[in-house]
Amino acid sequence: MLVWLALAALDNPLSAAESCSDCHPVALAAPHAELACQACHAPDQATAHAQGGPGAAEACVGCHAEMAGIFQHDMATRAPERAFVAASFGQHDAQFFNRNCQGCHVSSCRDCHGSGHQVRRPDTATCLACHKGGAVGWDYLGRAPREDSLRYQRGPKAQGEHYLTMRPDVHAEAGLSCADCHSKRSLLTGRKSSHSCVDCHQPDPKIIEHGIAQHLEKLECYACHSAWSPQEYGSFYLQMIDSPARDYFYVRQNPRRDTIKSAYLKLQQEPPLGWNQRGRLSPMRPFIGYFSRIVAGEPEGEENRLVTASWQAFFPHTIRRGTAMCEGCHANPRRFLHEPPQERVYRPDLDGLELESFWNQTGQQLRNGRFLNQDELAALESKSPAYIKAYIQKWQSFIQHVAP
Fold first, then answer.
1. What is d(CA 236, CA 264) in angstroms, rounded to the nearest whole number?
2. Is 141:171 a contact under the CB 8 Å cutoff?
3. Within 18-176, where are the H helices?
4. How far apart are CA 110 and CA 64, in angstroms?
């Protein structure tokens, strides 16, 4: 009997007499707390050690095989971003994406779930490690990116960046996390969200705006309920090669990149609107970019080349109960990129930036939809009897609300 036990111990180098914790005093976090080491580290019969260390290649899909599909979608492939850069900045710098756009989006399960033996469910802070700055995510907690100039790098700070404090999303105030709407199942299938607004909220016809059929048929809920969004008009990228002039730019700089960035204008207000791919009015944000290459202190080719003047329909995470008034859309052509010349304040054309106006459709495009045309704008601005009636009712509701 003793001989048999001795032979069994030789066959199993990780026997009861020699456990992993004798040399590796680590503790697993939930939900893996009850797993044995061998569940992730296959025994190596020759060395009595586990194959692979804490940084070994993905073992997660061995148990979670169904989740491997996440790496086939935009969250990992970054296909939309790559296509955008290839058609814009990539035309002037073939390595622009690799130099300036790496570091976000997942390449490993550990990017979201942590590393080592402390694998955990991702929380909102984990998501905001990438979804920060001008990207959707920070706005959910009421954070907006500050100006690039170093003089504005002050105030509260998160994820290594200073931010402006704005009104947060009502869902954030209610304690909902990113995962409450963005489930792993939706990410697996390539959908942006696992829920729509009407899954939890049904429009109340007693609310004047909800009682207008065209609003329910032609508007995304967040076209009216997005209180604000961060908007950057004119993003300047300067590629500095062997150029000591870089030190003269008093803006935030990333020492790991040869490109520095500044902005013509940053705003935090109600976003402009356009038709999205669902044929509904949606908020949209600008991607208006300029590129310059400076070699040994001298510009190479044209400075401030306009490489993209495009917009993207999107969903700001700044939902509030009441936002725009009637005239915010029905008497605001600028919000649909039909800015009247006599109302222009910013003149990028006079600054040599090609565009007549950031809020004029000329020379611009909405990549995942289309802008409102002149006829649609005229119909929106017409003061029909139905519009006048609803407008009066809206103001009467305000008077009744404050009268006591």
1. 8
2. no
3. 74-77, 79-87, 96-100, 110-113, 124-128, 170-173
4. 13
> For residues 238 and 184, what is the distance between their CA atoms, to the nearest angstrom?
38
Backbone angles phi and psi of 231, in degrees to 5: -130, 130
CA dihedral sign, ordered 359, 362, 363, 368: positive
40-49: pLDDT as tens digits: 776 654 444 4
Q: What is the pLDDT of residues 288-323, one digit of tens each?
A: 999 999 999 889 999 999 999 999 999 999 999 877
Q: Cα angle vertex 353, ends 352, 357, to 5°?
A: 115
Q: Would strands 305-313 and 365-366 be described as parallel, antiparallel, or unpaired?
A: parallel
Of 170, 197, 202, nearest to 181 (Cα)?
Answer: 197
Q: Which residue shows structure tokens 């976090």?
A: 29
Q: What's the burial of 250, exposed, middle or buried (CB within 10 Å: 0-12/13-18/19+)?
A: exposed
pLDDT digits (tens, 9 = 90+) for 57-72: 356 887 888 888 888 8
- Say how many C-beta atoms besides its own lie within 10 A of residue 252's C-beta: 17
- Residues 297, 245: contact at Cβ < 8 Å? yes
Task: Determine which helix (DSSP H) or strand (DSSP E) holds 295, and give its type and residue range.
Answer: strand 281-295
* Rounded distance between C-alpha atoms, residue 228 and residue 266, angstroms: 12
Place of tokens 């942590």: 114
Burial of 25 (0-12, 13-18, 19+ CB in 10 A): exposed
Please list, in sequence order, all residues whose beta carbon lies within 8 angstroms of the beta carbon of residue 29, skipping any fewer than 6 positions away: 117, 118, 119, 120
